[in-house]
Structures are given as C-alpha cells and as structure tokens.
Amino acid sequence: MNRHHWWRDAVIYQVYVRSFLDSTGDGIGDLAGVRAGLPYLRKLGVDGIWLSPFYPSPQHDHGYDVADYRDVDPVYGDLDEFDRLVASAHRLGIRVLLDVVPNHCSSAHPWFRAALAAAPGSPERARFHFADGRGPDGGEPPNNWHAMFGGPAWTRVTEADGRPGQWYLHMFTPEQPDWNWRNPEVADEFDQVLRFWLDRGVDGFRIDVAAGLFKHPELPDSPDPEADARTRDSVNPLAWNQPEVHDVWRHWRAVCEEYTARDGRERLLVGEVSVPSAREHAKYVRPDELHQAFFFDLLGAPWDADAFRKVISEAMQDIAGTGSTVTWVLNNHDQVRTVTRYGEPAPEGSGLGAARARAAALLMLALPGAAYIYQGEELGLPEVVDLPDDVLTDPIFRRTGSRARIRDGCRVPLPWSGQASPFGFTSGAEGAKPWLPQPDYFAEYATHRALADTRSSWHLYRDGLQLRSALHQLGEGTLRWLDTQPGVLAFARDDLVCAVNFGTAPVPAPVPGTPLLSSGPCRSGELPGSTAAWWIDGS
Length: 539
Ligand code: NOJ
Hints:
By secondary structure, this protein is of the alpha/beta class. The protein has helices at 31-44, 79-91, 110-117, 184-199, 225-230, 245-263, 278-282, 297-300, 305-319, 338-341, 352-366, 395-400, 447-452, 457-470; strands spanning 11-15, 48-51, 95-100, 130-131, 154-158, 164-169, 204-207, 268-271, 292-295, 327-329, 370-374, 480-481, 488-493, 496-501, 507-508, 517-518, 526-527, 531-536.
C-alpha cells in the first residue's frame, strides 16, 4: 500500500503577506504578522500556508517583480524573522510553501541591470530576451506579442551611446523582464534558489506562471494577437506552454526528491498552470513533474449546476487520471472574491452571493483532492468594489485603464477586531493607515466576531476541515454522481453524500435525515436554495 503523501488532500491557506497582519505599524502586513496569526490558522485547521512573494522588490506587481531571490524585503522583515516564522509554523504542524517566480524577475535585478549596461549580443543580455526591432530604424517591436497586463510585450532600451537600441521581452509589465530559459545559467540560478530555501526548511513552492518560462525559439508573430490582448489567460501559443518547460519541472521534482531522501520530509511543487484544457493541464502533473497544479476551471465556472459538473468531471478524468490529485481553488489574490462573483447580478444586500460562496466552499471541501483557501475567504469577505482610483496599485489598472479587471479589491487588509479601520490589522498607533483603505462594513467580518459566532463562515470552514480529516482522507479516491433534478448536484464519496442546490427554491434532499453539516439552515428532508450539505448515507 502507498504511504500517504500529505499534499494529496492538503488544505492550504494562501497568505497575501502585505494584507494579513502588520506588526510594525506601517500599514503593510509582514512576516512577524504572519507568525502572530499562526494560532488563528491552527484553530481553523489548515495543513499549510503559501506565502505570497516577500523578496526584495520595487513592488511594481507586489513582489512578483523579484530583485533578489534569496532575501526578504525590509518592508516584510528579514531572514531571521523568516526562520522564526518557519520554526513556529512547524511547531504548530503547519507547513510552509513559498511563492517562486521563475518566468520573470524585476528590472531592478542585478542581472537585468548588467544586461542593460552590456552590449547587444553579450552574455549578460543572453539571460533575457533581447532582440533588434523591426522597421527601418528598428523602431517597431521584434514581434506582435501583447503583454498580459496590457500594451506590447516589448520595451526598447537606450544603449550606452545614448541611442535607441534593442528591445526586451516582458510578458507582464516592463518592470518584469522575462528570463531566457534556453540559457543554462538561468536554470542553474533557479536550482540554487530552490536549494537556498529548502535548506532553510520550507515544505515546497507555489510556482508562478508555471506554463511560461520558454518561448518559441524564433519568437515569431502570434497568429491572433487580438485574442491575446482580450484575455488575461495565457492564450498566445508561441509564448506559453512550450514542451521544453516540462524538463524544468522534472529537474525541480528531482531536487525535491533529493531533499526527501535526506530527511524523509516530502516537499511539494504546486504550479500556477493556465493552459487551454484540462488535458493540457494534466501534462504538468505527470508522476515525475509537478506534484500538483491549480485547477482554475472551477474558479472560472459560473454559478450553474451543469457548469460545475462539467469542470469537476473533466478534472477528475484528466488530472486525477495522472495519479496526481486535483487542486481546487475558488479564490485567490488575482480574482474577484466568490461572495461578489456569485452575487452578481443579484440585488446588493440580498445575501445571495454570500450563501452561494458558502455552498461552493462546502462543495470544494467534499471533492477528492487538495484545496486552497485565500485569506479572508473563511470570513466570507466580499470584494471591495468601490476603491477610489487614487489608491489603486494594480499595474493592470495603470496599463489598461480598466477598473473591470483590477485586483486590488480582493487584496484589502484583513479585519481582525474592533469597529473601525484598521480593525486590528496594524498594531501601529491609532490612526495608522492600512495600505489599502478598509470599508466600514469590514467590522462585520472581523475574525474576533467570526470566531464568537457559530453561524459565521469561519465556523463553516473550520467544521468542514475538521470533518474532512475525521472522514479519513476525504481528499483521496473518486466521486460518484447521483441522479438529481436539474439545478442540483449531488455526489457520493463512499458513504458521504454532498449535494448543492444551485437554484433558489428548496428541493427534496437526496438523503433522509439531518445533514452532518450544511452551508445554511437546513431541515431534515429538504435542501434549501443556494445551499450545500453533507450527509452520511446509512442506507
Ligand atoms: C500570477 C500571480 O498570481 C499574479 O499576481 C502576478 O501578477 C502574475 N503571475 C505575474 O507574476
């Protein structure tokens, strides 16, 4: 029999460090704040945390622009504080995953500065994608690719003689130049970076843009640049999902196995993989590649029983078919929070979005596989939709002029206690300002209040997590769909039955008796609208 691999059914809590808890009073969360919040997370019952990037960075994309992969930005603490955090987490039985960003770095990274100072064709430039422009004086970008956050994917540099020169590639902002993974120096550098943090005791890595890294070797024009520009998904087939990337994941897996062989502790690699289909996605989690990859189709599905059933079935078939487990996500720091997403177009204050978000959470926790919870999700926090333009920091806003796609609204600092901002988020003097303003209604969601109210979302998540571990590796195995009326999903996992009513009117429950757990008030024999419930089927 296989020994149990902890990550297969783990529930990991995503800590967006700048917005979790501030220990210094500067209005920005930090590593000491995360350490102070560990007992809260232990109470919730998560298996591990994933820390968003805390490395030295000019913060053009809140740390996804890394200037030094082996240190802590002073805003967040230092390496000693990091070591204390890992030690405290481990004492509490919480594993620690770091966010590693291998597709691009910051334009402030010393290697990129060296590349700018060096001549065209130099070894320094060969670590990135520098190319001559097109057109009579090289004034046109080398190809027609769009950057994910708007505008062209190329920026022209000024050469040492003061003249306009070559262009460099950046699939996100110009402050995030893409590494050239065809250069072995880049692969070696990341090998060392992984080992640096593994030596400090981390339990694994969340890998940013894991379908990126390699570009088509000739950097040809994209067949459909307009489609690339319209979506934030990685659709340009020449810039993403190149076959060579799989060799990198095989190597990184071998590095992790090397550490496991030394001390018996299994390390986890979980990739942020945005590719066109569940079948393509499955390639990233072949047995010698990444352990897991986020499955975003659930996050992308509208509140609709058929849509949910389709994405769950595809994931089970394609991803679970590889021997890995599906890694479910409903929220993260890049997406509109579920409460708001599922609430639209319901009238504000109807509570529909909140009820659906709770139901979706119970559904996710009943599925086979691992689950990721984004901080604040357990509090039922809605998206902050009315941040004034002058506080917005997401580069997408600046680069596209679009409020529709911005990510600040899900990154507003967490409320912990009290009736007014900063709601215990910052331990600074009265009046210390969180880096994004918290709305007054955050008082209702503060953790102190949530813990004291057994009807809160926090209790639902906590109870779901507890039952999940009591029900013996609920994350393993498969599911069996049960027949239901339209608009209702029900599935069995051995003797556990989970049902979700996507409609608004009550339906007969699929199992007699009172549920073990439900996302809202639930009478025996009935499943109300916008509600999920778990039963043990004794029949
Ligand atoms: C995905 C991260 O989740 C997002 O926040 C970031 O902006 C991009 N990758 C670029 O690193």
